[in-house]
Write a structure and sequence with these properties.
It is built from 24 helices and four strands. The protein has a four-stranded parallel β-sheet with strand order 2-1-3-4, sandwiched between helices. Helix 24 links the parallel strand 3 and strand 4. Helix 8 packs parallel to helix 11. The longest helix has 30 residues.
Length: 529
């Protein structure tokens, strides 16, 4: 039997029994129930990104294209909120929470599809799905972002690329690329990631001997065609909107933010100075002004190039910390690297054990964030199931050589416990609704502010003022780190929200030196934790 025939003959997912399918469905149903319960407990949770997606959904629903179109925020999450606005026409948080639950389900379905392409035992696949389900349920309650949604779609893409169907069928290759294109509508980084994954995985398969070079080239060409076909309409809209070829503004903005000439703290300027949002907006964060950011090139000078390398090196450390934090001891990161590197004979092992490939798609994701900033766990959601899969695969491989069946069970359970522990530590906070404490405080302040006549809101060393403005439906004029009485008197907000209040009480303080000083200037102020 020649190499091509031998290793191209397993094109689809691993065989799945009815029992395994039932357990997988029960896991996803149970996770959905937990996500709904945590969504209710944290229903007042809000964050700056969430405000942008909710407000953009509102503009779409109102037919206000001028405010709805954004190159910084991908549209899919906002589009999903539009038909749910009738459930909460006041703030839109109910629709946002439902979309988060749906995003978690998409992520778990993508995880299941991906795991079925791996050469793991059925118990290992179910265990990996169960641990991922618990992790995703907790993450879905923490913040309103599209990261779970884009992660799920990218897992569907990886599932296709791990299989061989797309190598044999132009239709399946087009379908794989189309999934990547859909992921781009969820988050812009998915476009370069999908293109890179298609090219690298095709080349990797050809190098291993799973497929011929001709098959790999043909499949990659059709997959990229599907990617372009789905993503091109939105790229065209953005290019017309900005007057130049544009697929996103987020990459350029985030790169400018870490530039060598940025002297102040590296946060967006709208979160570090007072300003006035465009008419109709609550905050300029809904569409960060491009004029606030100075683009720079690492190739403009040797100094810039060295600075970019230094930034990438720092980000390598940040990514290592994030990936090592997926389990209690960092074993997953070790397995991710060791399983790919240490296998003799290497090519044969890679062909027979696809769980060893996990470092390839994980590294591609890391490369996207090396030039900018990479210090948030949510950027790497898809690495979580990859890491679990490779860890359980390593356990099965080691125990299969040296231990009896009982040893494999013990090893698998211990590995699973390492991944469950970090997530379980967050469960009490999620169940008690602690992620929503700031949102509840902002709701209370917004109600009081409306009773007192409303008006724009400004902050001092605080972000809660943005949430108050969101709930009160008034403009947020930004924040500065230091109290500037003259500047605040000049812009005359209806309320000044001061940060740095006592945390123990958890509530606002209406009588301290700064509040009195602002009151003497004719301004209403409150201090918050």
């Amino acid at each position: 039997m020649n190499t091509e025939t031998r290793f191209s003959s397993s094109p689809g997912p691993s065989a799945e029994s009815g029992f395994e399918r039932l357990i997988a469905v029960l896991i996803i149903v149970a996770a959905s129930a937990l996500m709904i319960a945590l969504a209710i407990a944290n229903r007042a949770q809000i964050n700056p990104d969430g405000i942008s997606y909710i407000r953009i959904a509102r503009y779409y629903a109102e037919g206000n294209a001028a405010l709805a179109l954004s190159g910084y925020w991908a549209p899919l999450m906002s589009w999903m909120m539009i038909p749910l606005r009738s459930l909460d026409t006041v703030h839109g948080l109910v629709g946002a929470r439902i979309v988060l639950v749906l995003s978690g389900i998409v992520f778990l379905l993508g995880t299941r599809s991906f795991l079925r392409r791996l050469d793991l035992s059925r118990p290992a696949r179910l265990l990996a799905l169960g641990i991922t389900a618990f992790y995703v349920a907790l993450e879905s309650s923490m913040r309103i972002t599209p990261d779970l949604l884009v992660g799920g779609l990218l897992l569907f893409l990886l599932a296709s690329l791990y299989g061989s169907c797309w190598m044999k069928s132009s239709g399946m290759a087009l379908r794989a690329g189309a999934i990547g294109g859909l992921a781009y509508y969820a988050k812009a980084m998915a476009l370069p990631y999908a293109a890179g994954a298609i090219i690298v995985m095709a080349a990797f398969r050809a190098y291993l001997g799973n497929d011929t070079r001709a098959e790999a080239f043909r499949a990659a060409r059709f997959a990229l065609l599907g990617l372009v076909a789905v993503s091109l309409p939105w790229i065209t809209v953005l290019s017309i909107h900005y007057g130049k070829p544009t697929f996103s503004t987020s990459g350029g903005i985030n790169h400018a933010l870490i530039g060598p000439d940025v002297k102040e703290q590296r946060i967006h300027r709208i979160f570090s100075r007072y300003h006035e949002p465009d008419a109709g907006r609550i905050t300029s964060w809904e569409e960060p002004p491009l004029t606030d950011y100075d683009a720079w090139s690492p190739f403009a000078s040797p100094g810039n190039f060295r600075y970019q390398l230094s930034t990438a090196y720092t980000n390598v450390g940040a990514i290592k910390r994030e990936w090592a934090g997926f389990d209690a001891l960092g074993i997953g990161l070790l397995c991710l690297v060791a399983a790919f590197v240490f296998r003799v004979p290497w090519r044969e092992g890679m062909r027979e054990e696809r769980w060893r490939w996990a470092l390839v798609p994980a590294s591609l994701l890391a490369l996207l964030y090396l030039p900018v900033h990479a210090s948030q766990e949510r950027y790497f959601y898809i690495v979580f199931p990859l890491t679990i899969a490779v860890t359980l695969g390593a356990v099965e491989w080691v125990t299969g050589m040296q231990c009896a069946g009982r040893g494999r069970v013990i090893g698998t359970v211990l590995a699973a416990a390492l991944f469950l522990f970090p997530a379980a530590r967050r469960l009490p906070e999620a169940c008690e609704g602690r992620y929503a404490e700031t949102g509840r405080l902002a709701q209370s302040l917004a109600a009081t502010h409306a009773e007192n006549g409303g008006g724009p809101i400004a902050s001092v060393d605080d972000q809660i003022g943005l949430y108050v403005a969101f709930y009160a439906k008034v403009p947020w004029l930004g924040t500065e780190r230091e109290l500037d009485l003259d500047r605040l008197q000049e812009i005359r907000p209806g309320l000044v929200v001061l940060g740095g209040g006592p945390v123990s009480g958890g509530g606002p303080v209406s009588d301290d030196a700064a509040v009195r000083a602002l009151s003497n200037r004719g301004l209403t102020a409150v201090r918050v934790p």
